[in-house]
Amino acid sequence: MAKLIRIHPDNPQEKAIDQVVEVLKQGGLIIYPSDTVYGLGCDITNYKAMENLARLKGVKLDKSQFSIVCNDLSHLSNFTRPISNSTFKVLKRALPGPFTFVLQASGNLPLAYKGKKTVGIRVPDHLVPRRIVEKLGNPIASTSIYDEDEILEYTTDPELIAEKWDKLVDVVIDSGYGDNVASSIIDATENEMVILREGKGDINEFL
């Protein structure tokens, strides 16, 4: 059964964050809040957890496209190839924010990402996932939680999420209602940025 942990979105309790980090360190899967929709994630350095995440999404790990959630841009050079000054300026202006930037992957990514030419980077404008990543010491893999409902693409109520995913994940974080619009995905592998998915946020404000 998944543990439901309530964490205040603006003032996350250290003890609760520590609980989540401990679960991640042990290879657990979590559902966490963000500035867009609730996400499903695990520790990117734990290969077994990454396999479980892929299985849950119904994809093979080597075919998966999990983005990584960072708490800021300081670790960017660990996971991506060098980027131009102009691209970095856009990222600095737009993040934290509701964007996933697709960048060229470096060879330093953990084993589960080996062979990937690109990687999606997220720095959500939400304290809870950023504190978790900061405490964990490395990013978490991330994917959105889709809803099978024909009208609602994303479930916004954490209690309903906990009910549905109860036997599939280890922790569901309740930080109040989520949004039902996913992040905008921006291809930043070239000098000219290309919008791959229109979601929350307008990247043109930062270009």
Automatic annotation (TrEMBL):
Top-level division of the source organism's lineage: Bacteria
Signal peptide coordinates: none
GO molecular function: double-stranded RNA binding
InterPro entries tied to this protein: DHBP_synth_RibB-like_a/b_dom (IPR017945), Sua5-like_dom (IPR006070), SUA5_domain (IPR052532)
Domain YrdC-like per the UniProt entry, residue ranges: 14-201
Record protein name field: Sua5/YciO/YrdC/YwlC family protein
Species whose genome carries this gene: Weeksella virosa (strain ATCC 43766 / DSM 16922 / JCM 21250 / CCUG 30538 / CDC 9751 / IAM 14551 / NBRC 16016 / NCTC 11634 / CL345/78)
